[in-house]
Amino acid sequence: MDPLYILEIGAHTTKFGLFSTAKPKHILQSVTGVCKLEEKKNKKVYGEEIDENLSGIIVEPIIRPTFSGVLIDWDQLEEFLDYLLIQTEKDGIDRSDLEILNSRSPYFKDKDDETLTEIMFEKFGIDSFNNGRQPLFSLISSSTVTGLLVDIGELKTRVTPYYKGTILYHYGSDFSVGGAHLSQYLSQLMCREGLYLNDYEGEKLINDFKSNYSFAGINEELEEKYSTFINIINSESNNEKKKNEQKSIGEIFIRLKKMLEFKKLRENCIFTDFAGRKYSISKTTSQFVEPLFQPGIIGKTEEGLQNTISKVIKNCDLNIRGDLVNNIVFTGSTARIAGIQDRLFFELQQLVPQNAKIGFYGSADESLSYFSWLGGCLCGRLWRENNSFLIDKHTYQEEGKQIVHQKIIESVF
């Protein structure tokens, strides 16, 4: 049986690896560049090669083949994909034997599907190919059939409900703040603290900061609202009265305590840049997440992510709203920021009915960065014996690139 690889081309990173593995073998920056070092002058570099060439070497221009889930440079994408397939050849796998299932961005257009299918067969000569929708793969990865997908992308956040395994795209909505906006705001905050970032190396520093130092804290409004509970948490006394009070506030107490622990752990961190310079990053650790909940901070006029989620839920049928708010599935690397689920819990509490149970799927671990990729792997395992979910070379030659619209994976069932 030919090897099946799962591909996901993201605005920030691309994931590529065998369907039978626990994580993608190749997770690399979705960028291409040109090396300017004399002995390698004008040599094209990709992904991790750019990271290797940063030390004392200028690599420019940095080009992203995709932006916010939209394909913007087909020539660069072809070169980038060619680099990926060379990696499989290094593993002893011939391109003509490759089967590829692509985790397709919801912002792809029909003509993009056709062009990508054509490139895979005509340019690279692979054996089989197909597209599956990213939200569907995320749903499969969560092992749930009804809930709410919140995909925090590069330039926008997509909120999409799903019911009994079917994505309800027509009820979904976009929120215009994404990971790139938070990164830009973080860069501004860092500048105020004397840390000046630029270009690709600065982008790497920001991503490191987001992954290892940041957390979503409670703002002044929430701190005032829950001041009684916070006083209980901060109190050194642990008598029976305090214990009973803690039990009575249940999940509120647990989540508040966790957020305060994050604050204590990370607020006084010392951040070290690539040059070894050290910076105190006090309030920056939590401030930069605020645009998700208060977009006005960065000049946006819309309400926060919590309001978008609330509106999407209210647009759905009354009988499924409880299931949606109780099963919120986050995806995207920004969703890994510590405390983000807890902060959203408190924001949503003010918008949903008092008796509604707010729940989140999964923990903010590394797998959220390739959540839909894992869903593609599960698809491969479920349907591996019946390869009808893939378009083979013979079918492509007979039907043409338009066949991709008939075969795209739309539902779990």
TrEMBL record:
It holds the Pfam family Actin. SMART domains: ACTIN. CDD domains: ASKHA_NBD_actin-like (cd10169). SUPFAM superfamilies: Actin-like ATPase domain. Signal peptide: none annotated. It comes from the Eukaryota. Belongs to the actin family. This is Actin cytoplasmic 1-related. The lineage of its organism: Eukaryota, Metamonada, Anaeramoebidae, Anaeramoeba.
